[in-house]
Amino acid sequence: MDRRSFLKSATGVGVAAATGGLAMPALAQGATKTLRFVPQANLANFDPIWGTQYVVRNAALLVWDTLYGVNSKFEPKRQMVEAEEVSADGLTWTFKLRSGLKFHDGSPVTAKDVVASLVRWSARDPMGLMIRAIQVELTPVDELTWKWVLKQPFPKMLFALAKNNAPCSFIMPERIAKTDPFQQITEYIGSGPFKFARSEWVPGAKAVFEKFADYKPREEPADWMAGGKKVLIDRLEWVIMPDPATAAAALQSGEVDWWETPLADLVPVLKGHKDISVDIGDPLGNIGAFRMNHLFPPFNNLKVRQAVATALNQEDYMRAIVGEDDKLWKPLPGFFTPGTPLYTEEGGEMFKKKSVAEAKKLLAESGYKGEPVTCIVAQDMAATKSMGDVTAELLKSIGMNVDFVATDWGTVGSRRAQKTPPGQGGWSMFHTWHAGADCVNPASYTAIRANGEKAWFGWPDVPPVEEHITSWFNAKDIAAEKEAMGKLNKAAVENVVYVPTGFYLGYQAWRKNVAGVTSGPFPVFWGVAKG
Amino acid sequence: MLAFVVRRIVTTIPVMAFVALFVFSLLYIAPGDPAAIIAGDQASPADVERIRASLGLDRPYLIRFGEWSWRVLQGDLGTSIFTSLPVTQLIAQRIEPTVSLMVLTLIFAVVVAVPMGVIAAWKAGSWIDKGAMAFAVLGFSVPVFVVGYLLAWIFALKLEWLPVQGYTPISEGLWPWLRNLILPAVTLGLVYIALIARITRATMLEVLQQDYVRTAQAKGVAQKDVLFLHSLKNAAVPIVTIIGIGIALLIGGAVVTESVFAIPGLGRLTVDAILRRDYPVIQGVVLMFSLVYVLVNLLIDLTYTLVDPRIRY
User: Fold this and answer.
1) Inter-chain contact A126–B260, Cβ cutoff 8 Å?
2) To which CATH superfamily is domain A39-232 assigned?
3) What's the rounded mean pLDDT across residues A270-295?
4) A–B CB contacts, 8 A cutoff, strictly below
5) Which CATH superfamily is domain B95-307 in?
6) A241 interfaces chain B, CB cutoff of 8 Å
7) In this complex, do B36 and A417 lie within 8 Å of one another by their Cβ atoms?
8) A140-185 pLDDT per residue, tens
9) Is beta strand A34-38 parallel, antiparallel or unpaired with respect to A235-239?
10) How far apart are the first and last CA of chain A?
């Protein structure tokens, strides 16, 4: 019996739960409207600036509000801000807060809180660091107003403050925001639509959020991080379930109401259940990837990288990750998230070739001498394990010598930072994935950077890629942005900054008595009601 | 007796010191970096280094070990790298579900396994014996998670008697507490039953050959008294020993069982900590489990004096 068959049969347990009405005394509904949600991962820490895992960002969006928020069109919209003004030379930004905003401890939100929060955020966020590098001053002007003076214009200012990529520019009380950005905060006080019930937090098991009665939602309709965050439930419980079969069973039995990331193998069972709705969760999905080490042979040779990219068949990778469901994947002849305004396939032909013969020819031309490819593969992550197995076969098929190192994600996380040669504790290749939300443009797309030593793991050094990224940041209109993105994609493909293995999506599932569930790059709890 | 207990408790100290040194050293040389996990994929190497420094992970081994040992001696197991919560608090949050699961498993296993082993020995070679031993082999062979899914399938899917996941504290009522633990305890107990039943059978087979058993039977003592009073008492030492050794099995099995049944216990805390390289939590939990294991062995030694009056300390 293979993994998929076993999980499917094990999930039959859930059918029993559903039909049997397995009432759970501890979970019995009281008068308060409680929504029980199974998140993608454990909420192990709760400082969204110190730790940038997406599960932390998702929880932080409940507790801390942001100055701006992106909507589903990737437009930055005012959230805590009432108005902003930029000087004619583009150097001085002046912002004003909405009045009457309160933190969960009852204190008012002021410009001092905002300034302290932006200082902490800009020390850790890639866009924040760019602003910090050109900053003259960031100071409060009065109780509700502050200004940010720069040495040179930064056209993407509002996007930086609105973006949903971790770390977001969450606003905290000044006393908390003054914590060293490399130290964890110990108080979880925000001004967002939910309060964090710290006393009920059992890391690895449960996290509880309660409706914040004094929250002032905007009047506009909610749209992702933008608009009015109107909370229609009293209490939100995150129930951590490491076993997907158990989570499926709990959803069917009604012990939980909403499961963020059902395993693709279990989705047919959930779709067949009369009380459960299933739909795409995050429409921005994920981009599967493997990165090659540009510092050492064989992948310091462009032709070797091109040979691997030419042989690649993305369908093999995507089938290994999502199975037979064609709704869940797309080929990706480039590096950016499909379906987003700046998406481009310019110059992406290499990823469409799927030609082993041409790859062998390129490999022969490269002068490859059979150096071992140290391929480190995390076995405890389904996606990386699946991709690693496909890659091993791919490399062998074109005649490369594979040293397959099966390990866990924690080890990959530290080993990929090693710049020593592959045979001395370093590596040649590792697999990962990038959230599609990070790949809509170069703003927070660390993986596309090719600035050598400062680049992400693999350390590609491709000046044209960096030039086009700079062009995008300086672009003044959408046409200029699109032009920069096209050139960037082409340069990144030609130089094989890394290899995308395809674009894939995942489902979410919820009980039909829960209304208002929408697709988004994070679970949106405002506007969700439970009958 | 008192001197023995004191001597055993004193000898616990070097054992615990060795465990502490071993665990700390093992984690020190193990690959993985919590700072990289915390920093996330967007972080630069400099950011990772700063986080590592802020956590004190860049300091020399001996200094870190010395500081940690000193804190442990004062009853402070440290603070979780990820949650910033004291390790003692994390353990306290998780101890009730795990202790409940282990105690219930222990009771279930002993109640089933000892009579099974005794009867199998008494009816050695019969279909009862063969059936019991086949069950024991099955218990050893089938992985805990398969048993868990299978039992849930039968008792939740087919019979609709019990829930499939979760834990209810005993403070919320005995039946709600028990209801959530029945399937996990049976799941975890099967391998333990197999172990105890086999040892009981083997020991009883030897005892049943003894002259005093034959004498008891010859003078007309009832068979149940021969088995459970005369024979079992004399076979008890190895059985009690194996029950003690089996505690280690329970600790290992609890890790899997808690995951399958979504029980927020120490097993899951341990797995989560290992995957994230949360060193203080791993060290604290392993140290605690070691202490439990040492104390259980002490308890077993003391139990010998109750079941065999010839043993004196």
Assistant:
1) no
2) Periplasmic binding protein-like II (3.40.190.10)
3) 96
4) 178
5) MetI-like (1.10.3720.10)
6) yes
7) yes
8) 999 999 999 999 999 999 999 999 988 999 999 999 999 999 899 9
9) parallel
10) 40
